[in-house]
Amino acid sequence: MFHSQKVPVGDNGEFLEYRRENLTGFSCRIAPERIKRGLNLAFSREGTDASCPFCEDHIVQETPCFPDGKRIFRGESTTFPNKFPFAAWHTVTVITRAHSVEKFTPRQVADALTAQVESLRDHDGYANIIWNYLPSSGASLSHPHMQGLVDPFPSYLVSRYLSCGEQYLRKNGKLYWKDLEIHERTSPRYLFGDEIPWMASPVPLGEREVRALLPVRHIGEFASFIDTFAEGVVAILEFYRRIGTVAFNMGIFFDKNREDRGFRAFCSLIARMSPNTTSASDSSAMERLHFEPVILTLPENLADTFRNLR
Asked: To pair with 225 at 20 to 30 A between CA atoms, which of 118, 267, 279, 305?
């Protein structure tokens, strides 16, 4: 499912590994020695921000309503249109009442995702749900929130999986995603999950990337799997927390509601630097200009750490 080439660097047995996903051509380079730079320092947690528009005292006054004059309330979550959209249809779900959260519960995540689906499902196009947690992940506000987007065109990542998955189906008469699942379930990267398998991504697009393969195509099919999926998300976030990852990005990518052309939805979670006064960004010219991430953690080592901590 991927091509790998190791290149020795230095004089002490260090190596650099180039990996390329066979289906799409997405590539990364893995440089384990770089983790010794010690850039990801201890997390400095902030308290409640009195000016936060997502906190209980402000959310009704500071956030807009949908065209019908309403917001979506489910559990602790509140969902509304994004004031500053960068998609044809763009919504925000504030996940918790608390401004600062030590651990998320499956119920909190499931309620937020259910509200996101409700806000997106009636809009035609390519839906995705993103979660940028804490400022070092790109979040403009620390208060936990997800965003939902629907566009008439897929993003570059999704477009590659759509076109390459369709070619794979035509050539082989079977789904790439099913073959990938079969392959990864017996690999050292498999983590857990039956209905929704979770794995350390073999060609990571971000640090400590974990992926879940969803048994659905478009967002309208997602609702019945949300509770199971939310339990998996919380398990990964707890694992991240135990190995020192606090900030993260999550994306769930869907096809539009159309004829089945061989795509299946998937989720990607990646680790980001812990917010603190001196932490550097983990994105540089390689990620932003070359579109080729430099990864510090071997996926097989990440999965081995996960198993040892269970």
From this structure: 305
| Inter-residue contact 133 to 247 (CB < 8 Å) | yes
pLDDT band, very low/low/confident/very high, at 44 (cuts 50, 70, 90): low
In a domain, 36, yes or no: no
Kindly state whether residue 44 falls inside one of the protein's structural domains.
no
CATH (domain of 189): 3.30.428.10
CA distances for 61 relative to 57, 58, 97, 242, angstroms = 8, 5, 15, 37
pLDDT tens-digit series, residues 176-185: 999 999 999 9
The angle at the Cα of 223, spanning 218 to 228, to the nearest 5 degrees, equals: 110
Q: Tens digit of pLDDT for each residue in 195-204?
A: 999 999 999 9
Residue-range definition of the domain harbouring residue 108:
55-310
Neighbours of 6 (CB within 10 A): 11
* Tokens of residue 55, six digits: 């906190």
The per-residue pLDDT for range 113-134, each reduced to its tens digit, is: 999 999 999 999 999 999 999 9
**Does a structural domain hold residue 84?**
yes
Give the Cα separation of 204 and 271 in Å (integer): 11
**pLDDT tens-digit map of 273-298:** 888 776 678 889 999 999 999 999 99
Residue 2 domain-assigned (yes or no): no
Question: How many Å from the N-terminal Cα to the C-terminal Cα in the chain?
Answer: 27
Alpha carbon separation from 133 to 184, 217, 249, 288 (Å, rounded): 28, 26, 6, 20
